[in-house]
Amino acid sequence: REREREREERTRERRRERERRTREKTRTENERERGEREKTRTRENENEKEKENEKENEENERTRESESDNERTRKRENENQSE
Prior knowledge:
The chain is built from one helix and no strands. By secondary structure, the chain is mainly alpha-helical.
């Protein structure tokens, strides 16, 4: 009877330990997955910012080109009026 009680206690201990290891493994996996999601989100945000910067740079370049064209046109018109 005493041996049976001890055997049941050891069985419960093993089960508790197995459950604890399972919880720990799950927690570790969840943390790893969360870290991967955060890295992916960060990378996506950086890519989005880079695209926005490229777009803004292109717009700025077009504006500069247009302003430069306008300035050349004004100079030409002034030269033509002077003649």
